[in-house]
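User: quick one, fold this
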Amino acid sequence: MRWDMSSMPQVNDTHGNQSVHILMQELGSVLCLDCSLHTLLDKYIELLVNHFEARCGFYTPFWFEELSLVSSLRVFKEEAWSGDDAELDALCERARKRYAAYPDDTFLYDGEDDPFICLRLADNGHPEMWLIIALEKPLSNEALNAFVPLVSWFQNGMVQCRRKTTLDSTQTRIDEMTRGMAETMAQLVQAEKMSELGKLTAGIAHEINNPIGYIRSNLETLVQYVETFEELFAEIAQWAKTKPGCSEMLQELEAKYDLSFLLEDAHEIVATNVSGIDRIRDIVSDLYAFSRKGEGKMMPLSLQDVIQRCVKLTKTRFDNHHQIQVNVHTDTPYCVGDASQLEQVMINMMINAAHAMPAGGVLSLDLSSTENRLILKVKDTGVGMDKVTQQKIFSPFFTTKPTGVGTGLGLSISNGILQAHNATVSVESAINEGTEFTLSFPLYRESSD
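Assistant:
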């Protein structure tokens, strides 16, 4: 940074290392907040005004070489700003002139009459945000040198806040699109167009699935590249130690470009993207299952055997606080169906039951028969559902789970599979009284001849 130190008055430093340490702690607390960009900038202004015991402070966007006075918070010793906007406009003009003289500096300071500081917070593709603080008195060299390293903290906090806002906005749009798709799907179901819908879904899943593979492969390659860069920088650092002056120069470059943060953030960005791709892959898998739910090899099978296999397969989804009870009340537990598809139905219902009983409970699977039907009751002691939810649970993309958990296709797929097996499903539930699904299959009996 380039300050005019010769003309700057020397004052007693009341903002030394201890004061900066307190500011770091307060800034860390602010950066942990889940808040909007403007709220974050408000907090920045409040911190800086209090730290420097400043006269006033505000933030304003800098775009195309112009400053616009649109601050949502102006602080005057912890009271609302009641002065003339002309003073704030004058500060903007002084900051702009300082920037014209030192365009590469992210921290601007003028210690002449009516001293001020200005933090330039940049983010690619967005206007810079300038935090302008009007001081009561000039700052000492020691106070300035102690504060300057914190400027990058303010900037990184704003960048991360913008990223989160973008992700939240994207998630909201995805949720809205999903709800729209669900409504469309429900209309198609009502119009008995599930066959055409299955073809459409298969086509969408296919088109989505094609780029997923190479995107994930590229991300894995990118991880290797980042690791290679880390190894390269480490070797360069070792080499620099053997050359006079090189090690210090390398450290300065690393600090200038914040190399450690870039490498760490690169890993985090790639990991987030891989997680997102895996999430999309799971959704595509459900879409494929949704489009193929009527297909399968039909043959006589024991539903009791299917239940036992599903209990083993879902064992890890339950813990010591859960009990699974299997009760068979028939000597003829046979129906005609596709074992893998019926396992999919059973596993989905059992996993849903586990989610409904996070603190533990009982899941009972009761198999019985009538003269012509094989009846399976799947009952849990979980949180239950209201009547409105019960009417929607078989609709495509409907879910009561938090965002990012499940696709809302599980029960819709299960319902389609059961229909293909000439089976029926009904549900009884009440809030805090658990849920019971009743599945009814045509009973299979071997011919005596």
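User: anything notable?
Assistant: Residues 192-291 form one domain.
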